[in-house]
TrEMBL record:
Role: Decomposes hydrogen peroxide into water and oxygen; serves to protect cells from the toxic effects of hydrogen peroxide.
Region (Disordered): 512-531
This protein's UniProt keywords: Heme, Hydrogen peroxide, Iron, Metal-binding, Oxidoreductase, Peroxidase
Protein name, entry field: Catalase
Similarity-based family: Belongs to the catalase family. HPII subfamily.
Section covered of the full-length record: 44 to 582 of 750
Length: 539
């Protein structure tokens, strides 16, 4: 039997060897030695030197010295909650995933976040918000790692380090901590006009949500669903908040940043504690899985594009209710590890080049953030499905594995229990045909080229008040840039969206509006490469 463990009242509770700390009436060391005193170091005389043999002192300070882990390289600041997802059964025609079945209930853990600020930054900054959901399904864990904005800054993950380097604080002064108001960000987005659409969403009221409870969520990429017959459908995932979509006024956001930098975090925890459980409906837009993977001329593999909901209505497939706050921020909110490749039978990825890079990045970053390869064993990351994985050893291994033959096939540990095909519930990737005769290239399709049309449509759909907010946001943010060339280049991008938007922002900045017929900013070939005569291998 395990060690005797006490509840705060002193009554013995179930002896779980993993329950540690603050559960009993007596203080102990990590080795369970009862302590009579934790306030004084062991000394040679009351005023004498502290003795190195004081193990309690060394253990206590050693552990404290190592309490911090690296914050996430992006989305470092977040807040989370537990809840439940209930399927409607309406997705059955397109998806065989068990958790979407009628009335199936699945525990979830959701983490909301800002993107750019550090762990200690403020909540109500103008930024994109992360909306990551872990579904602990009986068939394995499914993670939907999305944002509150339906498009992304870049079309290829190879540019992610660039956009994040541009968005993070300047390397010399480490400012600004959390907002987009600076030269490097605006330099990047004006040189990469594929970022125009996402940037515009950020400058709209969507960039300053009133509450996590009042945000939409989007899977952004197109996913491929598979039904029981093996038929496939392309989809985009949407979360629709039952409380509606609401934003702060810019002035409110700034005041909240000063008075209560924990505004969103507090709002979420208080609402749940008060029993006002936040709810979202999960929905899908569906598109035929044709070889072109387009819908009404929109390339479904381009994450900078939406498909208007008027053209492909969002069909509800389930409901999520958040019902409990984490009991320990570090154990749950900080250590949770999401991954867009955590899929279940019935859900597969597409060839969106942004998604491909994400599939590498999350697992990779978590090895250093969570100290080795065993973070799937951390309680918040444990799947609720049975595990038999043959992964062994490594830093922070806490499982005690049985068996002598962690390899496959073997003839010693009962042979090979695997080889479950789709019929037995095993995960099988959709056997998609890869374009025959494809060349290895570092190029992207012409269907990714239009960077403006959807942004213009978004602008034209706004009410006069919403337009005023967008103009004020661009004016404020660009006014914080030191470099006039950066401001001018961004005005030229705005001219391509709409002349009124451009003229008004230019007036606010006290600068002339650029000639809209002039050339759009272009990415120059790298001078360093061309000076050196460098070129990409043409493999
Ligand atoms: C973290 C969303 C693109 C790398 C996150 C988180 C969200 C998110 C919500 C926070 C997860 C959490 O709460 O723990 C998205 C969306 C993207 C996108 C919606 C585009 C559609 C990318 C790309 C890369 C990337 C292209 C890299 C190539 C990362 C990394 C983290 C992260 C390294 C930190 C993960 C961790 O430390 O656990 N992302 N992201 N993301 N993202 Fe992304």
């Amino acid at each position: 039997s395990g060690p005797e463990v006490y509840s705060p009242t002193g009554d013995p509770v179930d002896a779980d060897p993993e329950v540690r700390a603050q559960t009993g009436p007596r203080l102990t060391t990590a080795q369970g030695l009862r302590l009579p005193d934790t306030d004084h170091s062991l000394k040679a005389g009351e005023r004498g030197p502290v003795l190195l043999q004081d193990h309690h002192l060394r253990e206590k300070v050693m552990h404290f010295d190592h309490e911090r882990i690296p914050e996430r390289v992006v989305h470092a600041r977040g807040a989370a909650a537990h809840g439940v997802f209930r399927g409607y059964g309406t997705a059955a025609q397109v998806c065989k995933a068990g958790f979407l079945a009628k009335d199936a209930e699945t525990p979830v853990f959701v983490r909301f976040s800002t993107v750019l600020g550090s762990r200690g930054s403020a909540d109500t900054v103008r930024d994109t918000r992360g909306f990551a959901t872990k579904f602990y399904t009986a068939e394995g864990t499914f993670d939907l790692v999305g944002n509150n904005i339906p498009v992304f800054f870049i079309q290829d993950a190879i540019k992610f380090p660039d956009i994040i380097h541009a968005g993070k604080p300047h390397p010399d002064r480490e400012i600004p901590q959390a907002q987009s108001a600076h030269d490097t960000f605006w330099d990047f987005v004006s040189l990469h006009t594929e970022a125009t659409h996402h940037t515009f969403w950020n400058m709209s009221d969507r960039g300053i949500p009133r509450s996590f409870r009042m945000m939409e969520g989007f899977g952004i990429h197109t996913f491929r669903l598979v039904n029981a017959q093996g038929d496939t459908t392309l989809v985009k995932f949407h979360w629709k908040p039952k409380a509606g979509v609401h934003s702060l006024m810019w002035e409110e956001a700034q005041i909240a940043n000063g008075i209560d930098p924990d505004f969103h975090r507090r709002d979420l925890a208080d609402a749940i504690e008060a029993g006002a459980y936040p709810e979202w409906e999960l929905g899908i837009q569906t598109f035929p899985d044709t070889p072109e993977q387009t819908f009404e001329g929109i390339d479904l593999l381009d994450p900078t594009k939406i498909v208007p909901e008027e053209w492909a209505p969002v069909q509800p497939i389930g409901r999520m209710t958040l019902t409990a706050n984490p009991s320990n921020f570090f154990d749950e909110t900080e250590q949770v590890a999401f991954h867009p490749g955590h899929l279940v039978p019935g859900i597969d990825i597409t060839d969106d080049p942004l998604l491909a890079g994400r599939l590498f990045s999350y697992l990779d970053t978590q090895i250093s953030r969570l100290g080795g390869p065993n973070f799937a064993q951390i309680p918040i990351n444990r799947t609720h499905a049975p595990v038999n994985d043959m992964l062994r050893d490594g830093m922070h291994q806490t499982a005690v594995h049985s068996g002598v033959a962690p390899y496959h096939p073997n003839s010693l540990d009962g042979g090979c229990p695997f080889q479950a095909g789709a019929a037995e519930g095993g995960y099988v990737e959709v056997p998609l045909e890869i374009a025959s005769g494809a060349r290895k290239v570092r190029e992207q399709p012409a269907s990714f080229d239009d960077h403006t049309t959807q942004t213009r449509r978004f602008w034209l759909s706004l009410t006069p008040v919403e337009r005023e907010h967008v103009i004020a946001a661009y004016t404020f943010e660009l006014s914080k840039c030191y470099e006039d060339t950066v401001k001018e280049r961004n005005l030229r991008v705005l001219a391509d969206i709409d002349p009124v938007l451009c003229t008004q922002v230019a007036a606010g900045l006290g600068m002339p509006a650029p000639d809209p017929s002039g050339p759009l900013p272009q990415l120059d070939p790298s001078p360093a490469l061309s000076q050196l005569g460098g070129s990409w291998p043409t493999d």
